[in-house]
Amino acid sequence: MTLHIDSLAKRYGDTAVFSNVHLQVKAGEFVAIVGESGVGKSTLLNCMAGLDGWSTGTVRVGDADLGGMNAEQLALWRRQAVGFVFQAFHVLPHLDVAQNVGLPLMLLATPKAQIHQRVAHMLEAVGLGGMGERLPQQLSGGQLQRVAIARALVHRPPLVLADEPTGNLDPSTAARIMDTLVAQTREHGSAMVLVTHSQAAAARADRVLHLTATGIA
User: Which end of the chain lies in a sparser environment, N or C, as judged by fewer CB atoms within 10 Å?
Assistant: First the structure.
C-alpha cells in the first residue's frame, strides 16, 4: 500500500506551517523526515494518519482518500491501516504489557486465541518475551518504547508512522529500538515514515527528506 501526498499545505490563519509538500512512500520503503524545529514535521505526520487536518492538497493511502473521510471513517481506517509510535510512548498505565500490545487487535474484534498468539510473537520479536504480565511502571524507558512498537505493529498495518521514537533514549538503547522498528516493518512490508532529529536514526532510512516551510526535498 503506497502513501501519496500531493500539494499539501498547512496554515494557521495567515501563517504557513508548510506548503507544497509532495511525497510518495511505497510499501516496504522507509523514509525519514528531518528539518528545523517548528517546521511542522509532527504535524505532517499527523496529517498522514488523519489525526490533523490540512489547508490544501491531498493525502491518500492506497485507495483511501483521507480528505474525503469524516471523523468516524478516519478512526475506523486508522485502526486497521496505521501503526503510530509516539516519542512519549502513550502506554496505558492500568493495563499490563500484553494488554497494551493487544489493544489494536481487541479493537478489531480479533478472536482471543489469535490475540494471545500474536501478542506473544510480538513480545518475543521486540525482546520482551515473558514480560506480558508486567505493568508499565515496572519497565525502563527503552522497554516502554519496545511495548509501543509492538503495539503499533501487532495488527500488521500497511503504514507505520514514528514520531521521534528514540528522542527520550540513550544512544545504545536508541540503536536497539531502531533495529527492532526496522526489522519488524521490513518483515511485514509496511511503508514507514520516521520524523526525527537524530542523524543516527535517519541514517537507517532508504531516503532522508528535509521538510521546510516551502516544501520537502
Answer: C
pLDDT in tens, 156-181: 999 999 999 988 888 998 998 899 99
pTM: 0.94
Provide the domain count of the chain.
1
Helix axes 171-188, 141-153, angle to 10 degrees: 10
User: Are the C-beta atoms of 48 and 58 separated by less than 8 Å?
Assistant: no
Q: Which three cell numbers stand for residue 154?
A: 501487532
pLDDT digits (tens, 9 = 90+) for 180-202: 999 989 998 999 999 999 999 99
Comparing CA positions, the residue from 200, 194, 157 lying closest to residue 176 is 200
Q: Which residues of 103-131 are buried (b: 16+ CB within 10 A; e: fewer)?
A: bbbeeeebeeeebeebbbebbebbebeeb
Q: Residue 155, exposed/middle/buried by CB under 10 A (0-12, 13-18, 19+)?
A: buried
Residue 211 lies in a domain: yes
